[in-house]
Design a protein that fits this description.
Two copies of one chain form a homodimer.
Chain A: H1 15-20, E1 25-30, E2 40-43, E3 48-55, E4 62-70, E5 77-80, E6 82-85, E7 88-93, E8 99-109, H2 111-124, H3 130-146, H4 149-164, H5 168-176, H6 178-186, E9 191-195, E10 199-204, E11 211-215, H7 231-243, E12 248-251, H8 299-311, E13 315-320, H9 329-333, E14 348-351, E15 354-360, H10 372-386, E16 391-395, H11 402-415, E17 420-424, H12 429-438, E18 442-443, H13 453-463, H14 468-471, E19 475-477, H15 486-506, E20 509-513, H16 550-562, E21 572-574, E22 582-588, E23 595-601, E24 608-613, E25 626-631, E26 637-641, E27 644-649, E28 656-662
Parallel strand pairs in A: 2-10, 11-12, 11-20, 12-13, 13-16, 16-17, 17-18, 19-20
Antiparallel strand pairs in A: 1-3, 3-7, 4-5, 4-8, 6-7, 8-9, 8-10, 14-15, 21-22, 22-23, 23-28, 24-27, 25-26, 25-28
């Protein structure tokens, strides 16, 4: 590896280089990641907010634009930026294609505007401006040469009027007129035009930002632990999942399960003869990552399920877990892809403190792995894409090489940009962010471990700020087969409602592992794991059990679908609520046409009361203004008078409130955005 | 201009590129500026503190180093980094050459340390480790092949001991021994070694960071306004300036002064026949930037002065003001370097709201200017370097193109890296920082406009943090010929002492324009300008006038020379002092061997009292500890008992206190650093 300067520009230029350096400084451009090393994330139909610092020597007026295009296109599209103070400029554009894009900033000296402002000032002050009139004429004269069509006609006319007028006032009025200003802008030679670097921007489809995941083990879709559920059984459950409002249905691995070192119930090291084993122990005589566990069904059955799901508005997401049971065909076919110990064994996998005695890991950098293993894994993903899967939940990606993900995700998405990857990493913050940078479209989060008002507000705020804002889309899973949160183990039904409200209102992406709607929470004592974990056994459920929260979940998902402000984690703002147990925040669209206020009591036991502030200032309203409120859970409506209000939350009823606020003068019945 | 990706690495790599990407992520490396686009600043003999994030997939131990060298050198020097938590690593190195340097981070998998920790854990837990012993033997075997000299001997011996031993305990004790660990580290193959980009680092001489500037108009070194002072007169004043403790003597421009549009007294537009004009109106029949105003002396006189100054420990700094009086020879010789108006005139210079009717600016991007004007200006600087000047105060650099400065400073310093440039820009923050980035070694600041405790503490804190910390060395001028601060206009002698204390203690760089030591502050009413400004007339002074603060200034400069903690603006920390009028802070060397506490009352009128906290925790001392204090202004000594102390500041005595604190067990009489 050679020494690699970080940027393409020399730190200390020679004369020729310096003469070609941009005269205008453009720096601190957002959204960018590590100065363009990685693509920032955007979502189709959502504005990309651009912010940058632009300045130059001297006192002439500047103008600037953001230019963007799909990678590979010739032509740039442009949107003007506006100065917002202290050399910051802002603007936005809205991508309309799912594809890798690129953007850059252009800035130039706006010579005519500079001239015009000076002329206007001097003329207004009664200073003689004969010389300025002649300078203006020359400006226009030069512009005519460059101009074409309508612009040229306007400027030629202006030239004539200046030329034939004997009154300085007339000349000046031509030079200051808005029409000439517009024509001069159109013919602007963009003097000293300077360009920022070109930054990559990955534009994803909507479900990258807004989706509701439901997770189940297909084998548990049965009426008895004795009978292995099938894809056909899953099809029978689709209506219920759709009715709860989910749009992604995610399965843990569906591949053949190894027998060697198979885990028994409750993660025991000895499996009984009828124990099905963990689906994460991938691979047996019946095949590996490219095969289906025979008891679930065939490839044809799987495709039938994918189609049936689509008819219910549901998309199938699969688990991509790069690991092998000791019975995986690759151990025999490609022994060179593994690191063998002196005794001919392979170390079993660990993700401290967890131990996975039933699986081994591949060695990505073994001589024979480069690139055969990499390509084989890519082919596995591509096989499932060809079978209709466009979403992958990736198991423990932080234990596989970052360059591998960077390549694999780019490779697959170059073939089909609709494919999305969800990173299931629970590790330190730098790696969590980096996985987003290398291409993961969504990420698991620290959500389940943020339980107080302050923790949750800080986390949501951090997710709304650079750099996470630009590289990390949080998928708030309320539980997973691996995470039975301590909070839920003791909080009862109100606790499940609290977490469902926080997840659905906090992020555009949320997920639920089946059993949550039944308020299941029995743990392995002292651990965040489920007792009788479904990872090691077949667990049929009664989905109509007493005390379930199916209706509430359906309501929450319905509210999300009807309110654009809730279809992203962005746009979060905490507001004042004078009770440390109540998290109170707003979510809003950029144009404020959809503004939702959410109050969640973090206390599943006691009633909580608080005064709170309506964010009237966000609408430019005075503290005394009246606004319309609507409770989105029950449809009640009222008028709020003034800024300070009072709430009481009784967790045994509903531990949260979701209110749409509408400023006066706007019809609360109008569809959003009108 | 072609589209220019920001980094050399592709945002979405192909397979071959991915296989060559670093496996270990290295990001957020400091000190860097704009991801390596500009060189961060360092100073010879001062440690460069390196901080970076390093992480990788999996759970193996990492090791890392910072590597640095002079630009152009073959060999890297190395210093190990240490993990400090959450994937951050830190280390430092101290440059010993004044030159452009470069550094990078290296990180690799520490395979033997990983093995050793696992073995140690298992062995301690009584788990069978026969297999591990064999794995360890293979580690050592592989290392022997790579090792040389002493390391090889140690490892061969270890191999033999493992081989011949029949006791597992003996094998393990060899594998875990510190000697083997050290030898294995020496022979480490640096598996998966990854490199950050290479970042530039500009290492300056000491006076870039620590210098005390004294500014005077040579023509005022006279006993009568009728007689123009000369370089010879300045020589007579050198002992007094040295005795005040200054080490840089800076002159406004010393070039011939134009006659056309010459300014009269108090910036009037009409000069009288004997008015000397502003030295910033550079150029007359007698020459331009490469000539000396005849009344000051000859080039020989100038060189004599430079030598005499050096004998007094003083270095001469000149003003580099790129502007021309209408009489400057360049207007005739190089009319193509200027932008002419339709009537054959050139616009006079402005730096809003200031107007400079007696000067015009060059046009850096005129056809004939590129590169002739650039080279001519570079030659001007180089001429003065050849005449012994190594410091330049640059007038209004923000009104000249940034690429010009970037090239000029690099060009001059490539010839003589001891040359330093001070940017006299008073403009918005982005430009202030950028001038540092493009190469200015020191910068004028907002210091004179920070008057409250909170303002000053925030400003000093900002200067101590990235990015300013790495690109901007603040030179705290207490006044300049252009700035007669409002605070000083009304605060009397205590006000001058307050500002002198803040400047000398706050930054390693400070400056004073003559008259300050006499507490001169008569303004043009309502303006921050001096009445009867020396810019437009010859102003002899009585430097022994009653009420002067010469002794205090000398004391402050002496204290700075004796205390390394005060020789930089870095190492600032505000501490608790329960009075909003008293700024109380500490400055300390990295090893705490020199720790100064400074309390400055911002109130020039009333006595102020406060309880304050000694920062005992910085020394690891309990709140009850006793420490030694010394008042560095008067030499008094005492013992402080405990953390909370009391102070009373009487501005009519001295509006500040400067105390050296020494922890118990260290002799307060020892020279610093021992």
């Amino acid at each position: 590896m050679t020494d690699r300067p970080a940027t393409r520009e020399p730190a200390q230029p020679n004369l020729e280089q310096a003469l070609n350096l941009p005269r205008i400084a453009i720096e601190s451009t957002e959204p960018t990641l590590d100065e363009g090393r990685f693509a920032a994330k955007a979502t189709i139909g959502h504005p990309v907010n651009v912010r940058t610092r632009i300045f130059t020597d001297g006192h002439d007026q500047l103008a600037a634009a953001v230019c963007w295009r799909q990678k590979g296109e010739e032509t740039w599209r442009r949107a003007r930026l506006k100065p917002v103070g202290n050399d910051w400029w802002e603007g936005s554009f809205t991508p309309t294609q799912v594809a890798l894009h690129e953007f850059r900033i252009e800035a130039w000296w706006d010579l005519y505007e500079t001239f015009r402002q000076e002329l206007s000032k001097k003329y207004g002050a009664g200073v003689p401006v004969g010389l300025e009139a002649e300078e203006g004429r020359r400006h226009v004269e030069h512009a005519v040469k460059r101009a074409q069509g309508e612009t040229r006609a306007v400027l030629e006319d202006a030239m004539n009027r200046i030329h034939h007028s004997h009154l300085i006032e007339e000349k000046i009025s031509v030079l200051l007129s808005p029409e000439i200003a517009a024509a001069m802008e159109a013919a602007d030679p963009h003097e000293h035009c300077s360009y920022s670097a070109t930054y990559p921007l990955d534009v994803d489809r909507t479900r990258a930002l807004f989706a509701s995941w439901y997770e189940l083990f297909p084998r548990s879709e049965t009426d008895s632990p004795e009978r292995h559920g099938t894809f056909a059984d899953v099809i029978r459950r689709l209506p219920a999942i759709r009715d709860m409002g989910f749009d992604v249905l995610y399965f843990p691995p569906i591949h053949p399960i190894g027998r060697k070192h198979r885990k028994g119930r409750n993660n025991s090291l000895e499996a009984g003869p009828n124990d099905p084993g963990s689906p994460y122990a991938i691979g047996s005589e019946e095949g590996g990552h490219d095969a289906i566990h025979p008891e679930l069904g065939s490839f044809e059955d799987f495709r039938t399920l994918v189609e049936a799901a689509a008819e219910h508005g549901l998309e199938i997401a699969l688990d991509f877990a790069i690991q092998c049971s000791p019975d995986h065909p690759w151990l025999k076919e490609h022994p060179g892809w593994f690191a063998w110990r002196p005794d001919g064994s392979i170390k079993y996998a660990e993700n401290p403190p967890k131990k996975y005695q039933d699986i081994v890991n591949v060695d990505f950098y073994a001589e024979e792995s480069k690139p055969a293993l990499w390509e084989a894994l890519r082919d596995v993903v591509w096989l499932w894409v060809q079978n209709g899967v466009k979403m992958f939940r990736v198991d423990n990606p932080h234990t596989k090489p970052l360059p591998f993900w960077e390549w694999l995700i780019a490779d697959i998405r170059a073939r089909d940009p609709d494919v999305l990857f969800l990173a299931e990493a629970f590790t330190r913050p730098a790696m969590m962010a980096r996985l987003g940078k290398v291409g993961f479209n969504q990420s698991y989060t620290y959500f389940t471990w943020r339980n107080t008002k302050q923790e949750m507000a800080e986390y949501l705020t951090e997710l709304n700020r650079a750099p996470l804002r630009d590289c990390y889309r949080p998928n708030f899973f309320v539980n997973t087969p691996d995470i039975n949160p301590f909070f839920l183990q003791t909080s009862g039904r109100p606790g499940f409602l609290i977490r469902a409200a926080l997840a659905t209102m906090g992020s555009g992406l949320w997920g639920m592992y089946s059993g949550f709607e039944l308020c299941e929470g029995a743990p392995v004592p002292g651990k965040e794991e489920y007792l009788d974990s479904e990872k090691y056994e077949i667990r049929p459920r009664n989905y109509h059990a007493y005390g379930n929260i199916v209706w509430e979940i359906a309501q929450l998902n319905r509210i999300r679908r009807q309110n654009p402000a809730l279809q992203t984690h962005l746009g979060f703002q905490e507001y004042a609520c004078f009770n440390d147990n109540i998290l109170y925040f707003g979510k809003r669209t950029a144009d404020l046409s959809n503004f939702i206020l959410i109050a969640v009591s973090m206390d599943p036991i006691n009633a909580q009361e608080a005064h709170f502030e309506l964010p009237l200032w966000e609408f430019g309203l005075p503290d005394s203004a009246q606004t319309y409120g609507e409770d989105l859970m029950n449809g009640h409506r009222w008028t709020w008078y003034g800024k300070t209000q009072f709430m009481r939350i009784e967790p045994w009823q509903l531990p949260f409130g979701i209110w749409r606020i509408t400023p006066p003068g706007r019809d609360p019945d109008l569809p959003v955005g009108q």
